Amino acid sequence: MSSPKQVRASHILIKHKGSRRKASWKDPEGRIITNTTKDSAVSHLKALRDDINSGNANFEDIASRYSDCNSAKRGGDLGPFGRGQMQKPFEEAAFALKVGEISDIVDTDSGVHIIKRTG
C-alpha cells in the first residue's frame, strides 16, 4: 500500500524552554514556557494522552484547553497537509498513524506533541 499524498491531523503541543518560539496564545510573554523543562512538558503530555486514551477526556477539548498551538481554537485541527510541510519528526509520525490513532510523544523544534490522525 502506498502512503497517502496528504493526511489530516490534529495535535496538542506543549512548549518548553528548549522550544523554538517561547510564546503562545495562552502564554504571550512566554513566562510559563521559559520555566518549563522538556521533561515536565513530556510528563504533562503523557498524562493528557492517558486521559484521552482511557476515555476520560476528549482529544479536541484537551487540545483547546492545553495546546500551545494556535490550532487549539479548532480543537487542535491542522487541516490536511502533505510531505515537506511540517517538521520531519511530526510529518513522519502523522503519516505513520492510522485514521483515529493517537501518536506517542513526538519531539520537534516547536516542543512536544501528541498527534491524532483525522483523515
From TrEMBL:
Pfam families: Rotamase. One of its GO terms (molecular function) is peptidyl-prolyl cis-trans isomerase activity. It comes from the Eukaryota. It catalyses: [protein]-peptidylproline (omega=180) = [protein]-peptidylproline (omega=0). SUPFAM superfamilies: FKBP-like. GO terms for cellular component: cytosol; nucleus. Residues 4-119 form the PpiC domain. Gene3D superfamilies: 3.10.50.40. Keywords: Isomerase, Rotamase. InterPro entries: PPIase_dom_sf (IPR046357), PPIase_Pin1 (IPR051370), PPIase_PpiC (IPR000297). Residues 1-29 are annotated as: Disordered. The keyword Transcription regulation does not apply. Residues 13-23 have a biased composition (Basic residues). The keyword Repeat does not apply. Its EC number is 5.2.1.8. Belongs to the PpiC/parvulin rotamase family. Prolyl cis/trans isomerase with specificity for phospho-Ser-Pro bonds. This is Peptidyl-prolyl cis-trans isomerase. It comes from Stephania yunnanensis.
